[in-house]
Structures are given as structure tokens and as C-alpha cells.
Amino acid sequence: MTGTSVARSNENFLEVIKSYYQLTKPRIIPLLLITTAASMWIASKGNVDSFLLIITLLGGTLAAASAQVLNCIYDQDIDYTMVRTRKRPIPSGKVQTQHALIFAIILGVLSFGLLALFVNLLAASLAMSGIVFYMLVYTHWLKRHTTQNIVIGGAAGAIPPLVGWAAVTGDLNWIPWLLFVIIFLWTPPHFWSLALMIKDDYAQVQVPMLPVIEGEEITVKQIWLYTILVIPFTLLLIYPIGSLGIVYGAIALSLNVIFLRKAWQLKQAPQDKQLARSLFKYSILYMMLLCTGMVIDSLSFTHHLVALLMPQ
Predict the structure, then answer these.
(1) % helix / strand / coil in the chain, to the nearest 5?
(2) What are the residue ranges in the chain where pLDDT is below 70?
(3) pTM score, two decimals?
(4) What residue ranges do the domains of the chain occupy?
(5) How many other C-beta atoms can be found within 10 angstroms of the C-beta atom of residue 246?
(6) pLDDT of res. 7
(7) Sign of dihedral through CA atoms 269, 274, 278, 284?
(8) Segment (H or E) for 188
(9) Fewer CB within a 10 Å sphere, N or C end of the chain?
(10) Sequence-distant (≥ 6) Cβ neighbours of residue 127 within 8 angstroms
(11) Is residue 237 a contact partner of residue 181, using CB atoms and an 8 Å limit?
(12) From CA 250, how far away is CA 92, in angstroms rounded?
């Protein structure tokens, strides 16, 4: 691929570490981990084992990092073409493709080994399935060929709560799958608001993101639709499933109202990139706070406090 074969040495050891760290796209990983942690807290009814939590989150971090490095390898032609991404480690020549591939394999093997040895085989297998789905289904098959790329591809980002639940219980039931659906439906508003912001970049490299192919108006209508869809699923955890209570309910309702308002504002002004940016940033905060609400509600302290304030 043009421009990607030009080698450029890192200045020192710290620069090497920084380059490999950047390959993992570290800003993406915390959001994946908090969905894993929330699932673990619900599964353990607020009493998650500290060692199990640390190992599961470490294994999840390594799996996500492996997937992102593989993505950087596969998309290096796109990264080199776009001005915004041209300084990433592979297109800039700071890391050679074969070295990045070895790094990704090591990360994946460490993830599977840690989870299989210290957690269980189901959690390890689910983490690996996330890597496979992200690379084969999203990056290879969907991303460059359909406007529905991030809708179907969103399943990869929805796997972490399955890993977290399996880590605690050794199996899967309706609750982790509901968490999967919540993240799956949340992904289009999150990612399409970003796509609206950088539409021209995607058009430049011929990636068929929805705003590029169908335009802003269709995109914001789809964002509005998925925002409406995700809200009732967040409340199913309260009723009829009953795994969470009034504290989570109050947090979820507040977050959902703001989410709806921001999506509606964008729907009224499809070409306003500042509104798209506002929705994108809020969507990250939304998922982090929603998961935090799940954790808080699952704690025994919260149950005791609610019982004191609202006696039967």
C-alpha cells in the first residue's frame, strides 16, 4: 500500500512503547471495560470477587487491544490516505506491519490464556469471538461494503457484558443478552453522530458510511429511531426482569431524557456538526453513567438504603 512501506525509526525506547500503545486505540477500551464490569456486578449481586474482576478486565483489555491493532493493520491504506489518521504508527512508519501483527497475536494469546486459566473457558471463548467478529465481520466484510456496517458490526462492541457475566456465573441467561441488546442499539446513535462529524473523511477514502451514501437527513432519522429503540430496553432491567431497582431507574430515566433531547435537536438540524459532536460526546457519557448506575444499584449498601427510605 502506498506510503505504508516507508520505515521510520522511533527516537528512543519510550517512543517505541508509545507507538505500540497508540496501536491499541486506548481511548476506546475504557467504555468496553465498564460494560464488562457492570455485567459482573449485576451477576454477582453487588459482591464481585476482586481478583476475578481484575483478571477479567485485564483479559478484556488485552482482547480489545488485539482487535484494535489488527484493525490498524487492515485499515492502514485508509489511515494513510486520510490526513486525520496519517500520523498513526503504521502509516507513519513508526511500526512495521509484521511487528504489529506479532504484537496483536501476543495480546490475543495472553487474553485467552489469562481468561481460560483464571476465569473460565466460556469467558475466554467469548472474548476471542469478539476479536473474530470485529475483524472478519465488521472490518473485512461490512465496513467497506455497506451503510449498515456499524449496525451489524455493533455486535462486536456488545460482547464485553457477555464476557463479564460468563466470568461470574460460567453461563449466560437473559440479563447479559439484554445488556448486549442495549449496547447493540446504542451503537448507531453513537457512531453515526461521529460519522456526521467526519463525513468528508469517510467520503475521501470511499468508506460507505450512512451520511456519505444516504446524506445527513436520513442519518439523523436513523439516529432518532435507534435512540427511541434503546430506551425501553434499558428499563427492562427493572421490569419485568427485576434485576435492578429504583436507583438505576432514576439514573436511566434522567439519562434517557437527555439522550432523546439531543437526538431530537440533531434531527431538527441534520447538518449542524456541533450538535452531532454534542450527541457523540454525550453518548459516551450516557453509556458510562448508565453502567455506573447498574453497579450502584446492585450494591447491598444501596439495597439497605432504599429499604430504610422506602419501607414496605
Answers:
(1) 75, 0, 25
(2) 1-11, 312
(3) 0.93
(4) 19-305
(5) 13
(6) 45
(7) positive
(8) helix 174-197
(9) C
(10) 59, 60, 63, 111, 112, 115, 159, 163
(11) no
(12) 47
The CATH class of the 19-305 domain is mainly alpha
pLDDT at res. 312: 62
pLDDT at res. 11:
63
Q: Per residue in 11-21, pLDDT tens?
A: 688 999 999 99
Cell numbers 448508565 label which residue?
Answer: 290
Give me 12's grid cell: 528512543
Supply the pLDDT for residue 241.
87
Angle in degrees, CA 191, 195, 157, rounded to 5: 25
Residue 232 CA to residue 158 CA, distance in Å, equals 17
Q: CA torsion sign, 104 to 148 to 215 to 194?
A: negative
Amino acid at 140: H
- Bond preceding residue 240 cis, omega within 30 of 0: yes
Closest to 215 measured CA to CA, from 190, 201, 195: 195
- The contacts found for 279-285 with CB under 8 angstroms, 24 or more apart, are 279/189, 279/193, 279/223, 280/190, 280/193, 280/194, 280/197, 282/258, 283/186, 283/189, 283/190, 283/193, 283/259, 284/31, 284/190
Q: How many CB atoms lie within 10 A of CB 49?
A: 13
- Tell me which residue has cell 458490526: 153
For residue 146, is it left (φ>0), alpha (ψ between -120 and 50) or beta?
beta
What DSSP element (H or E) covers 38? Answer: helix 29-43
70: burial class by Cβ within 10 Å (0-12, 13-18, 19+)?
buried
Q: Say which residue the cell 502509516 belongs to.
A: 91
